[in-house]
Amino acid sequence: MDHFLPEDETIAWSSFETTKQHLEPAEVVQVLAGLCKSLPSLTRLERLCLSSSDIRFLGALLYLISTPESQDILMEWGAENRHACGLARLGRTLWGEQEAIVSLRPFREAQLVKLEFFGKVDAQYLAAMAAARRALPSGNTSTWLQRLRIYIVLRAMDALESNIPREKHLFDVCRTIRQVCEFTDHKDWELVEAVAGSATGYQGFVAETTIRCCEWLSRSALFWLLSAVLIPLDQPIT
User: Fold this and answer.
1) How high is the pLDDT of residue 3?
2) What is the value of pTM for the model shown?
3) 142: Cα separation from own chain's centroid
4) What are phi and psi of 236, to 5 degrees?
5) In terms of pLDDT, which residue wins out, 26 or 65?
6) Residue 211 confidence (pLDDT)
7) Is the pLDDT of residue 181 over 60?
8) Which residues make beta-bridge pairs with 167?
9) Taken in order 227, 218, 148, 104, is the CA torsion positive or negative?
10) How far is 221 from 26, CA to CA, in rounded Å?
11) DSSP 3-state assignment of 236?
């Protein structure tokens, strides 16, 4: 799948693979940060975290894209989405450095994002969504939500390239997804269960989710979810 990567990014990864052999695990992330200019995928994630000096925000996104489940999604979507391939390569490398990836995770699953990121949840809405635990109970709906979370990250990268680093639609979407993942009794959980589909491919996921949201829109306030997959890039948050 790496043949989808731009040449400059392929060269940067080759350099990193050679360099990391001489590093302690804790130094791996620091070296990756230093490669930001050569690794567009990492640069974009950093910018989506407002280039914050608090590594927890970038760490939340990196941990999300690095899990085996996310890797499967990104690798499947790599041929259809230009950002997915770069994120898959980045995540695959990080997951191979277990001490590094553990240090990136901002906090444990049982901890609530709104408490751990207190005062920063709104500003770091994308990282806050990424930091939320995998939705419970485990099943088709939680699997679909993981796919949706990866889609949201890709959508945010598209918005960033359109000079919209903070998009109003995504702010609302990320907040609701985070809450649904953290609270099993969230008021939108049953609606999410009804909308969750089975399509796995990138275009199929977008099409199926759009259709299902439209079917339910007349019966519920699913605008927050519909806007994630259907509405064109929005105006930036000022």
Assistant:
1) 44
2) 0.82
3) 15
4) -70, 155
5) 65
6) 82
7) yes
8) 236
9) positive
10) 45
11) strand
Tokens at 133, concatenated? 């635990």
* Cβ count within 10 A of residue 226: 20
Q: What is the mean pLDDT of residues 178-207?
A: 90
Residue where the block lists tokens 């408490």: 115
DSSP per-residue codes, 75-102: HHHTTT-HHHHHHHHHHHHHHT-HHHHH
The tokens describing 89, both together, are 């390569």
Q: Give φ, ψ of 149 to 5 degrees.
A: -65, -40
Contact status, residue 106 vs residue 37, Cβ threshold 8 Å: no
Residue 17 and residue 10 in contact, taking contact as beta carbons nearer than 8 Å = no
What are the strands, taking DSSP E only, across the chain? none
- What the block records as the tokens of 236 is 């930036």
* Tokens describing residue 193: 């269960």
Distance, in Å, from the CA atom of 27 to the CA atom of 99, rounded to the nearest integer, reads: 10
Given phi > 0 = left and psi -120 to 50 = alpha, else beta, which region is 111? beta
Structure tokens at 90: 């980045």
Angle at alpha carbon of residue 95, lines to 93 and 100, rounded to 5°: 95
Residue 190's alpha-carbon distances to 61, 195, 199, 216, in angstroms, are 27, 9, 19, 12
Q: What element of type H or E holds 207?
A: helix 202-217
- Contact criterion met (CB below 8 Å) for 184 and 139: no
Strand partners, 236: 167
